[in-house]
Design a protein that fits this description.
Length: about 120
């Protein structure tokens, strides 16, 4: 059984690699985009169960990514915002806010909780 498809968006390559590797080890299929603009094309042509986006990126911010997800997918796809300034994010807009720096345990717990709420979470054990 294939895992849930997750899109990770961040302009830092090391963050993309780390999250992609970590989520893949938990059985998720991970796509990455190093900008909000690149995420738009991926969102148009793929079905994701979850989107994780950095907030502070050039041109398109995490808020722009969220607006694009809601426009294309409605509320059915949960969106996690990652930020070094989590207090500046309207927590009512995003499904969850992941403060940087964060532990992988917190990331996994957040992902699991959101996917279990949407009914898409399937443990791979």
């Amino acid at each position: 059984m294939k895992g849930i498809k997750v899109l990770v968006i961040d302009d830092e390559t090391i963050i993309l690699k780390m999250l992609s590797t970590a989520l893949s080890t938990k059985g998720y299929q991970v796509d990455t985009a190093d900008s909000g603009e690149k995420s738009q094309k991926k969102l148009q042509s793929n079905d994701y169960g979850l989107v994780i986006t950095d907030m502070a990126m050039d041109k398109m911010t995490g808020h722009d990514v969220l607006a694009n997800v809601r426009n294309l997918k409605g509320d059915s796809v949960p969106v996690i915002a990652m930020s070094g300034n989590p207090w500046m994010i309207d927590k009512n807009l995003f499904n969850a806010v992941l403060p940087k720096p964060y532990s992988l345990e917190l990331l996994f717990e957040m992902v699991q909780n959101l996917l279990s709420l949407t009914g898409d979470y399937k443990p791979n054990h």
